[in-house]
């Protein structure tokens, strides 16, 4: 398949991505089932603790992807058909997060497979994001602000590695896996400085 | 009913369509019910396999419609009241996809009627899209970039035919039907080249 | 409470309304519960017929409101704080449509109270829309394009009357009530000509 | 963590917030479960009364946050990475409102803990909003229209105090707590005059 090089505005792909990510981040709260009628004690919320932690974690992860998506597209000038599909591929893996998040929470982070699958979906997301970056750079050109800002993408490569290590750890301790996932999240909580710095430099130069 | 020819900007119809399609593509994941508490083995996901395949398929189909919708409206200059309704008619049939998708997945693609109904809804979507194209061309004019780009719409006509054949096959083998649906999806995975090419030509001329 | 007369752009109120209406129109499909595993015959869909009809009806109604909202705001130049709340009041009553729609469908249009409540919510929506129009005209001025286009709002007044008659009919025959609701929908399916015509005249004059 | 001072347009953060808030405000209606088949009397809705009241209350609260968010960002010129996260933090606490709202409604406002948790989530929202305001003012500058408009934020401080008092009252009477929550809502129903007035003054000066 040849990449199509017609330039299209980025407005609508941003709007659609915003919509999908907004829904993903919000429907996860539906997994927190309200304790039934007559269960109105604080202790009735106790069992929900892991589900809540899982929700917070996934909220932060989806939030990170939205923030980075925002920063990346801020540096993008136009898109093409291939970008549309690479973006949809990322949205697909993001849409699976609520499912694995609920499975992991429901089993209180103690069961191996839910924790493994959660890590697997995070891994697929990081790969999908990597593909999107590559497709965008191919479209924008190797000397575009985006390309120079991304550079060798060390942070992305470390994340992918940490996910793999985290998944492998699940057979030793699921809590150790979880610690790795938290570590990657913390690493990304800071918005992508590479792009910001590059843009800041451009602004101060001009 | 006379078509109303007041020109309106296309911004809000795009935004509303983005919203509806974003929700449709995302709520389908809610059909993937998390295995209950205490079901934390990989084998517990095995029964979900058909539901997941069905989800992937429908995600791709709704994604195709969004991409083509995006491409088509990219070539559109303005809209009118009739376009609003033709667009809502398409959104209606897209909104039924999650329902038939879940029904088909829940019966593991083995039962005739769910597979037939899935094909029927795809067929109705292709007809609704066809109507939307016609209404847009009527509004934009037969010499508009959109009209020349769409041309005789061979791909659309082949799709409609393949859906009908696929539906009929369900009484022989539901997996054969499914193969036809996959075939049409593959055919459309490539964004609408007709419109892209036409626009590309226009851009290089100007 | 004094109306606040600071002018704000209409972009974000349109976007938020689009979002809410897109969600309302789409989550209604979730009321169509997939027949359980092992129910894969066409006959298994038979019981869903009233739910489907109810869905179509409500989809059309919410679609009408979106279309009219679109047309009306197309003629609006700016908004203020009072408009924000009048708009939220309309969105509130629209958000109740999925609930009464499901209740009516589940009881196959045969029970009095679900049909009455459905009509009541339609009535409240028409009143909320009426209030929004008044608030917008107060903000835009009595000689604004919007005001002259709306005129004496005969269609709106007839609708309100027909809802009341339709509700009252439920104690005679719920199907008669339903016929009235369909009648109003048909009346509105044609986008608001008053505003379109006025704008068309303005465009041809300029 | 150093705040990043690259200026980005506010369009996409507004669009994403609109999307999330639109979903939150709309999915709450899903908590109003339709009475089962064969329950079609008006009396069948009676038990839903507290759930409905809780829905109205939460709809108004989320509506207030959207309105104030709208007003505040109207006065904002650009954003940075820190603002993105402060905004996501607010959206997180807003996303928990449907959960506590359903819990409170299901127990008819009579149980202590659901009413306390509802107040707690409102309190966390008011704190998150306070943080967002601070972060925005730090970015925009102390002499920006936003900063002078917000002033000493008396209304925000009173709200926070009233939430705390309301929560404490739950051990005396949950209805008294509820009265406090209603009071704060009424206080905010009027859009943020400080910002509006400031902008109005600016407009009349220019």
TrEMBL record, chains A, B, C, D:
It is a multi-pass membrane protein. It is found in: Membrane. The chain crosses the membrane at residues 12-29, 49-67, 79-103, 115-137, 161-190. It catalyses: K(+)(in) = K(+)(out). Coiled coil: none annotated. InterPro entries: TMEM175-like. It comes from the Bacteria. Pfam families: TMEM175 (PF06736). Keywords: Ion channel, Ion transport, Membrane, Potassium, Potassium channel, Potassium transport, Transmembrane, Transmembrane helix, Transport. PANTHER family: ENDOSOMAL/LYSOSOMAL POTASSIUM CHANNEL TMEM175 (PTHR31462), ENDOSOMAL_LYSOSOMAL PROTON CHANNEL TMEM175 (PTHR31462:SF5). Belongs to the TMEM175 family. This is TMEM175 family protein. It comes from Mucilaginibacter ximonensis.
């Amino acid at each position: 398949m040849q990449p199509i090089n017609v330039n299209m505005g980025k407005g609508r792909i941003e709007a659609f991505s915003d919509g999908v990510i907004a829904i993903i981040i919000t429907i996860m709260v539906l997994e927190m089932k309200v304790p039934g009628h007559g269960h109105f004690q604080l202790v009735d919320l106790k069992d929900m603790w892991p589900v809540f932690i899982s929700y917070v974690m996934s909220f932060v992860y989806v939030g990170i992807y939205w923030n980075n998506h925002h920063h990346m597209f801020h540096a993008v000038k136009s898109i093409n058909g291939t970008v549309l599909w690479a973006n949809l591929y990322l949205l697909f893996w993001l849409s699976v997060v609520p499912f694995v998040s609920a499975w992991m929470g429901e089993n209180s982070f103690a069961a191996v497979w839910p924790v493994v699958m959660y890590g697997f979906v995070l891994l697929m997301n990081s790969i999908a994001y990597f593909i999107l970056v590559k497709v965008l750079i191919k479209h924008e050109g190797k000397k575009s602000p985006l390309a120079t800002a991304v550079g060798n993408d060390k942070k992305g490569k470390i994340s992918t590695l940490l996910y793999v290590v985290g998944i492998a750890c699940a057979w030793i301790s699921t809590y150790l896996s979880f610690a790795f996932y938290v570590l990657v999240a913390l690493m990304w909580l800071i918005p992508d400085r590479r792009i910001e710095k590059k843009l800041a430099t451009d602004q101060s130069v001009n």
